[in-house]
Design brief:
Oligomer: single chain
Distance between the termini: 26 Å
Helix content: 55-70%
CATH topology of the largest domain: DNA polymerase, domain 1
Number of domains: 2
Strand order of the largest sheet: 1-2-3
Radius of gyration: 17 Å
CATH superfamily of the largest domain: Putative phosphatase, domain 2
Shape: globular
Largest sheet: 3 strands, parallel
Length: 157
């Protein structure tokens, strides 16, 4: 059996989401005249995981997810550098600006794209994933790109 399509996840497969997310959070605190610590970041990771799990189960919309994770974080750390919706917007902007691909990803996609149709399926947010793909010059590799936020259904469904 000859495969015709290869499907990729985006975050932590083609790009280093973990480090980018951490840098974006720290930068967002700085942008609002505050300081992020490793303890705050650890709290954010736990809260973010809870919120994304709720989204993936269909218990929370992507619209609610955006500010909710920061509302919960700010309640947990007892400080609010900016309102959760405003902070969320800045965080997402920083997430785009600070993104980078893993070494060798472009060569890999070039090579695979000569033999297969390539698709990308991601649970990310539309205002983050599309601009990151463009910024990292990856959009053209994929014959189809599915962003869960755009179709209203999370991966595995």
């Amino acid at each position: 059996m000859q495969y015709q399509w290869l499907l990729f996840d985006f975050d932590n497969t083609l790009v280093d989401f973990t480090n980018t997310s951490k840098k974006a959070l720290f930068q967002s605190f700085i942008d609002y005249g505050s300081e992020c610590t490793e303890k705050i970041y650890a709290t954010y990771k736990d809260i973010n995981h809870q919120v994304w799990t709720a989204f993936e189960r269909g218990e929370m919309s992507a619209e609610r997810l955006r500010p909710e994770r920061f509302a919960r974080l700010f309640a947990a750390i007892e400080q609010e550098p900016a309102s959760p919706p405003v902070f969320s917007k800045r965080y997402l902007e920083n997430l785009v600006a600070l993104s980078h691909a893993y070494e060798g990803v472009h060569n890999l996609l070039d090579t695979l794209g000569q033999r297969f149709q390539l698709g990308l399926i991601t649970n990310g947010l539309k205002e983050v994933q599309r601009p990151r793909l463009d910024l990292l010059r990856m959009t053209h590799y994929f014959n189809t790109i599915i962003v869960s936020d755009e179709i209203g259904v999370a991966k595995r469904d």
